[in-house]
Write the structure tokens for this entry.
Amino acid sequence: MASLERPSTSGREGTTGGILGVWRRGAGLPKKKRVTELKNKTITGFFFQVDTISLFRSGLRRYIFTVIDKKSKLAFSRMYKGASFFNARDFLYRLIYLVNTKIQIIQTDNGSEFAKLFEEACTKLKIPHYFSRVKMPKDNAINERFNRTLREEFIQLGNFTTEPLLFNQRLTEWLIEYDFNRPHQSLDYLSPIEYLNNYQKGLPMSPSSTHS
């Protein structure tokens, strides 16, 4: 991702006006909420980590948005042709539809796809949006592990295609197996849905809604 570099002052250290002054003061740029601020916070609802996988095949680049709940390991994913904030917003609304309940926290990295429309959607839905620290993959460790599983147990087993419609149809079937049937050691060998049924109220997903 592109980084913001400090503009040159051309030797004028005392300059505070113009663009440089705005940059120094951070005018109009709200401070990002970092995930480290949640260290001592009690999380009782869904805490979703969102990420993007970029793949290049047959001369085409495709992007897979992924999300997983830190506690239950409930996961969702979808391929898009671009990693735009428009697609990131679409992915968020699909997640809302699937879980059909309040999301307590959304965590992302600092990618541009998670700005503008995505940020506006979080605000509209009253979902606090927290960011991972730059170059600190451990902040997003649960999602990184899911991305690895998605690669090893789905993509690398002959399921990849650059056609999003076909890929997402195959991916949906795999996600149903992952969420409803795949045991997780961290959940005492329950599947995410079994864990949610046992330890939380209500069933957040159903096979029919997953096919939407």
Notes: The mean pLDDT is 85. The domain at 35-210 is CATH 3.30.420.10 (Nucleotidyltransferase; domain 5).
